[in-house]
Amino acid sequence: MDSAKSLRNLISIIVTIIVLGVSIGVGLTIITSPASAYPTEQEVQDLVEEYYSSHTYVENVYDCSEMSQDFWNMCYTKGWTTEMGVREVKTLKDGSVVYHCWVVVEVDDDTWLAADPTCGFTVKSDEVIILSGVRKSGAFYYTAQWFQDPRELRNWMLTNQIF
After folding, report:
1. Could you tell me the residue range of the domain that residue 18 belongs to?
2. 3, 72, 122, 160: which one has the fewest Cβ atoms less than 10 Å from its Cβ?
3. Is the pLDDT of residue 32 over 70?
4. Which CATH number covers residue 91?
5. Cα–Cα distance between 120 and 45 in angstroms, integer?
6. Residues contacting 38, CB < 8 A, separation 6+
7. Start-to-end CA span in the chain (Å)
8. Do 26 and 51 belong together in one domain?
């Protein structure tokens, strides 16, 4: 009997602490299994297609860096683990470098799916895609300078005077 009473008292104390914490505005975090937050590849594809259909690329105004930051935020809001990648695409005749930015989403334990909100598709590293009539390896999207969040990306862009 005493152990049951002690258990009820302990539960009562815990509930009181939780209620008190919520009433005074103390944030409580409920930790869930990381696996429960993984989206399916189809969910990522659907979201990037939705994003692409509702946003317009405007060169040097609203381009891949802004679009990737927006898409990163949409994924972040869903609780998905994401990173943003940037890599050099080509060097122009005047010596300036063109970069591209996109997002990768963790779809399983250490398994990532690249999502390009600028073009509205996902691609695996072993796939081949056609962009502007040119065949390109999906591996392009898996070798990059990686950023955990938009602030890191913007700081890097400012430091390196990119975009």
Report:
1. 1-30
2. 3
3. no
4. 3.30.460
5. 8
6. 80, 106, 107, 108, 109
7. 70
8. no
